[in-house]
Each structure stands twice: as C-alpha cells, then as structure tokens.
Design a protein that fits this description.
51% of the residues lie in helices and 8% in strands. The protein is built from ten helices and four strands; from the N terminus they run βαβααββααααααα. A four-stranded mixed sheet has the order 2-1-3-4, with helices on one face.
C-alpha cells in the first residue's frame, strides 16, 4: 500500500493513502479543487480543514502550506510517480489539468490565454471580492467610514464588467469549458453569500448571471460544491 510521508497525516489520517489527498473547506477557493477533481474524474480523499487557527495554523497544516490557507493537496502519484505537495488553488488546478489531460488546451496560444484568466481570478476577483465580503458583510461592515466599503464595491463592479464583456457571445471564459471557469464562477457566486448582488449590480449582468447558472447546473459542480461537507 502507498504510504504518505507528511506530518499532516498525524492530524488528518488518510484512510486511502493511495489516493490524492485534499485538505480544504467549501469556500470559493476550496471548491475550485473539489470541482476540478470531480470534473476530471481523479479519485481523491477529502479532509475538512476548518478556517479556525486551531486547524490552519496547526503545525501539521503549516507543514503543507506555510501560508496557512486552504486548499492544499498531496498527490502520492505525482510526476514520475513521486509524491508532490501543492498549495494555491491556481497552481493546483494547472497541475490537475496537466495530470488528467483535461480542461487546459495543449495548443500553446489557448493554453496561455486560459492561464491568463486563471491569474485574473487569483490576482483580481478573489482578493477583491474577499475584501468586499469583509467590509460589506463581516467585521468591516461595522466601520462608519464608507471609504473601504465603497472602494471594494466599485472594484467588484469593475471586475464584473470585465467578465460580462468577456462572456459576450460565449458560454465559457474560453471557447471550451476549462479550469478558468472552475476558478472564476465560484467567486462570482460568492456575491450571493455576501449579500452583495444588488449593490454590485450583479443581477443586471445578463451574461454573468447566465454563466453562473450554467456552471452550477453541471453535475460535477453540484456534487463538489460542498466538499468536504461543512460541519453542521
């Protein structure tokens, strides 16, 4: 039997050490990886890592991701049959696409354009929408000064406009469904959780709203959107 070699197994033991191990929580960042795994048909074992310091700042998790953020993976069957550990969702999805040969074109031009949109999500939509959530729904919403809140509302509107324009006349970010969609759509959907659809004008964007609905109608997405399951 394959033996995983990593400190994290002391806190989250692997029942199936021969499978890819996912350490995650069903946030927009976390479900990117479970969606990719389901879409690509890669067998995996999921471990719930809560967002509390007791988990993400534990020595075992920090040994896998020193940046103390989910998601992270260990693949015991990595390149050349060697174990590989990865964090950062964009890096993980590129790796999984290459491992499976799915959802990332082998054509160099299309490949790099797809990666471009992966980076757009990582550098723009993810951090900006996350800040919007903090200042609109969570602790930052208590601030009387509206400067930060307005800044992230306006930036979210700008980013949504970029996606709306990109989707004009197309079903997906690229010509075909790809890892770029797995990166972007969960974060667009997060505006519902933040209660920020109205304030960002989300509902007036015909391309974006149809795109998110189309994405969540996919069977693999429906299966993966709560993996690992949230604690009740």
């Amino acid at each position: 039997m394959t033996q995983l070699s990593h400190p994290i197994t002391g806190r989250w033991p692997a029942n199936h050490p021969d499978l890819l191990q996912l350490y995650s929580y069903p946030t927009p960042n976390g479900v990117k990886v479970s969606i990719a795994l389901e879409e690509m048909g890669i067998p995996y074992e999921a471990h719930l890592v809560t967002l509390g310091d007791v988990d993400v700042k534990s020595p075992e998790f920090l040994a896998l991701n020193p940046n103390n953020k989910i998601p992270a993976i260990i693949d015991p069957n990595g390149p050349g049959g060697a174990q590989i550990e990865l964090f950062e969702s964009g890096a993980i999805l590129i790796y999984l696409a290459e491992k499976s040969g799915k959802f990332l074109s082998q054509d160099p031009k299309t490949r790099y354009e797809t990666i471009q949109w992966v980076m757009f999500q990582m550098g723009g939509i993810g951090p900006m929408f996350g800040q919007l959530g903090f200042f609109y729904k969570f602790a930052g919403a208590k601030m009387e000064d509206p400067l930060a809140r307005d800044r992230y509302i306006n930036e979210a509107k700008r980013l949504l406009a970029v996606v709306e324009q990109r989707l004009e006349g197309r079903d997906w970010i690229m010509d075909d469904y790809s890892i770029a969609d797995m990166m972007i759509a969960p974060w667009l959907n997060a505006l519902d959780f933040y209660g920020a659809k109205e304030v960002t004008g989300y509902n007036e964007l015909k391309n974006v709203t149809a795109y998110v609905e189309r994405f969540y109608a996919r069977p693999a997405v429906e299966k993966a959107k709560n993996v690992p399951p949230r604690p009740e």
